[in-house]
From TrEMBL:
Keyword Signal among record annotations: yes
PROSITE patterns registered for this protein in UniProt: PROKAR_LIPOPROTEIN, TAT
UniProt region (Disordered), positions on chain: 91-119
Position of the signal peptide: 1-27
Record protein name field: Uncharacterized protein
Record's compositionally biased regions (Pro residues): 100-110
Coiled-coil spans in chain: 60-87
Keywords for this protein: Coiled coil, Signal
Entry superkingdom: Bacteria
C-alpha cells in the first residue's frame, strides 16, 4: 500500500530530477534557435571614431608644432575614450582572448596642410563625436553605459575648449 504523502504527489522524485537536469539543455536550445539577429554593439561606432580621432590628433601634433600641445591632449583623451569603450564592449560581449579586438586600430591619417585647416579638422571631429555620443545617451538602456557615453560627450566638449 502506498503512503498518503506519496499518493498525492503528481511528480515523483525522479521526474523532478529529470526536469532539473533538462533545464540547461532547453535554455541553450531556445537561445540557439532564437530568430533575433545579433545586432552590433551601439558603442562600436563611438570606439571606432575615438581611435580615428586619436590618429588624426597625432598626425596634427607631428605636422603642426603650434598645435602640438592641444593635439597631444586630444590624442591622449580620445585614446582613453577608445580604451574605455572597448572594455565596456568586451564586458558585455566577452570575446576569446585570441580573437582580434572588436574595434580595430585606425589607419594612420594625414594632417591637413595648414594649421587652421588642421585645427578645424580636429574641431569638426570633436564636435561630431560630442554630438553622436550625446544623441546615443537616451537610447542606451544600461545606466552605466549611458554614463560612460555621456562622460565621453562631455569630455569632447571640454576638448573643444582646449583646442580654442
Amino acid at each position: 500500500m502506498e503512503s498518503p504523502s506519496r499518493a498525492r504527489s503528481v511528480l515523483g522524485r525522479r521526474s523532478v530530477l529529470r526536469l532539473i537536469a533538462a533545464t540547461p539543455v532547453v535554455a541553450a536550445l531556445t537561445t540557439a534557435c532564437s530568430t533575433a539577429p545579433d545586432e552590433p554593439d551601439e558603442l562600436l561606432a563611438l570606439a571606432n571614431a575615438a581611435k580615428s580621432d586619436a590618429q588624426l590628433a597625432r598626425a596634427v601634433a607631428q605636422a603642426h608644432a603650434e598645435l602640438a600641445d592641444a593635439a597631444n591632449e586630444i590624442a591622449t583623451a580620445r585614446s582613453t575614450h577608445a580604451d574605455a569603450l572597448q572594455q565596456e564592449i568586451d564586458r558585455v560581449n566577452p570575446r576569446d582572448p585570441e580573437d582580434p579586438p572588436s574595434v580595430p586600430e585606425a589607419p594612420p591619417q594625414q594632417a591637413p596642410g595648414s594649421a587652421s585647416a588642421a585645427s578645424k579638422a580636429l574641431a569638426d571631429a570633436l564636435a561630431g563625436a560630442r554630438d553622436r555620443a550625446a544623441a546615443l545617451v537616451p537610447a542606451v538602456p544600461d545606466r552605466y553605459r549611458a554614463g560612460l557615453v555621456g562622460s565621453i560627450s562631455a569630455s569632447c566638449a571640454s576638448l573643444l575648449e582646449v583646442l580654442g
